[in-house]
Write a structure and sequence with these properties.
Layout (H helix, E strand, L loop, with lengths): L2 H17 L5 H12 L27 H14 L11 H16 L4 H4 L8 H23 L14
Helix pairs in contact: 1-2, 1-6, 2-3, 2-6, 3-4, 3-6
């Protein structure tokens, strides 16, 4: 399958999960990337992302999609007790943060959505777009990781 189509499918899947109301932003990213990586974790791992939407429990702090993205990085580069931290974890997490900040001028939910009414279709569309962007950016990174080549599976739309 063509690389750009794979990345676009990940973007559409993550955004679609949120758009349809199946999950919020952080959950959509985790669910989609878990599928993309061939389900290395039980689908219930999405439960771990449940407190991050709307800037950590509606506090408006860090964007839930970004939080979900960092959690997805942990699915790949996380460590077991007593093991060394994978040297890729911190740099790629910082890159994700910087990528979203460059695109949207912030990673803070209340700043990203400051001009949008909470339950409006415009706000949801904005958040769906950010959710898809985070998932697509990570899919691109994961596709560049030679150690993941055999684990990656196209997502089902």
């Amino acid at each position: 399958m063509e690389r750009e189509k794979i990345i676009d499918d990940v973007r559409r899947k993550a955004g679609g999960c949120f758009q349809k109301g199946e999950f919020y932003c952080s959950e959509s990213v985790i669910h989609t990337l878990n599928e993309f990586l061939g389900w290395p974790f039980d689908p219930s791992i999405v439960h771990l992302a449940a407190g991050f939407p709307v800037g950590i429990g509606r506090s408006g702090c860090v964007c839930g999609a970004v939080s979900g993205g960092v959690m997805a990085l942990g699915m790949v580069y996380g460590r077991d007790p007593g093991k060394e931290m994978d040297s890729r974890m911190f740099p790629v997490a910082a890159e994700l943060h910087d990528h979203i900040k460059k695109l949207y001028k912030s990673t803070c939910c209340r700043v990203l959505t400051k001009d949008l009414v909470f339950n409006s279709p415009e706000r949801k569309a904005h958040c769906v777009k950010i959710t898809g962007e985070v998932a697509a950016w990570l899919a691109d990174k994961f596709l560049n990781d030679e150690t993941l080549k055999e684990k990656i599976h196209p997502v089902k739309l």
